Each structure stands twice: as structure tokens, then as C-alpha cells.
Amino acid sequence: MAVTASSVIISAMVFFMVFQLQYEAIHSYTPVHYIVGDEDGWDLPITGASWSNGKKFYAGDVLEFKYERGTDVSVVDQEAFDNCAVNDKSIEYNDGDTNLTLAFGANYFICSRPLICQAGLKLAINATAPPPSV
Ligand SMILES: *[C@@H]1O[C@H](CO)[C@@H](O)[C@H](O)[C@H]1NC(C)=O
Ligand SMILES: *[C@@H]1O[C@H](CO)[C@@H](O)[C@H](O)[C@H]1NC(C)=O
């Protein structure tokens, strides 16, 4: 009886320790801060595809877009991304320096000027859940 009770207590303790470790792993991810295009910024000849190629993005990571005044970065849906045409759901930022946090799932960004977007200034990222930390 005593053995059973203490093994129940130990099981409960182990359960809560594991739970706590998992909780901390999920909540201790430090988001990465990216500057899109690195030193070239959000501007041609950088293309979103060439810059994002090989990178792994997690929800909560921040993308900093740096661009000339007169251009913009627009947060758009897939339709606007595919067509290089903003629509009424698009949100345009044009103050030259914009930090945007990646949402879980698909994130689409384009330059609202169609020719520049078509030349490659568009970026699609699928952000996954943050990894457990080591
Ligand atoms: C974006 O975030 C970076 C790093 O935290 C910061 O240096 C920069 O000032 C921010 N830009 C804006 C427009 O908030
Ligand atoms: C993101 O995932 C969606 C749905 O699975 C897919 O249609 C889209 O092509 C993906 N985009 C990228 C950039 O991988």
C-alpha cells in the first residue's frame, strides 16, 4: 500500500516535470530577427525567392523590411501574391522600415507595384511552430 502510494506520487512528479520541461521548451523559443535581403534590403535585384531559399522560418520570427521611400511592402493574401496585384485585403506599409511578425502558416508579402512584384519582389513563407529548444 505504501509502495503503491509512493509510486503514484513519483509518477505524478515525473509527469509534472516532463510537462514543465515541455512547457518551457515551447515558451523559450527566441524569435529570429531577419533583415529581408540582408544588406541589400527589400529591393531588386534581390528576389524574395532567392533570399528565403534554404531558410527555415518559425511563427513569431520577425522580418524587417528596409526599402526606399516611394516603394512599399504589402501584406497580402495568396491571390494578390499570385497575381502581383494588391486587393482590398492587402495592408501596405511605406515608411521605409517595417518589422512584421510571421504568423503560423502561409505569409505573403509583395511590392504593390506590379512590374516590380513580377520581377521577383515578392516573398512567400510558410512559418511552422517554433522548435523545442535544446
Ligand atoms: C525593427 O526592429 C529592429 C530590431 O529590433 C529595430 O532595430 C528597428 O528599429 C525596428 N524598426 C522599426 C521601424 O520599428
Ligand atoms: C505554403 O503552404 C501552402 C499550403 O500547403 C502551399 O499552397 C504553398 O505553396 C506553400 N508556400 C510556400 C512558400 O511553401
UniProtKB/TrEMBL annotation:
Keyword annotations from UniProtKB, A to Z: Signal
Domain Phytocyanin as annotated: residue spans: 32-129
Signal peptide positions on this chain: 1-28
Superkingdom to which the source organism belongs: Eukaryota
InterPro entries with a match to the protein in the record: Cupredoxin (IPR008972), Phytocyanin-like (IPR039391), Phytocyanin_dom (IPR003245)
Keyword Signal among UniProt keywords: yes
Entry coiled-coil feature ranges: none
Name the UniProt record assigns to this protein: Phytocyanin domain-containing protein
Organism of origin: Hibiscus sabdariffa
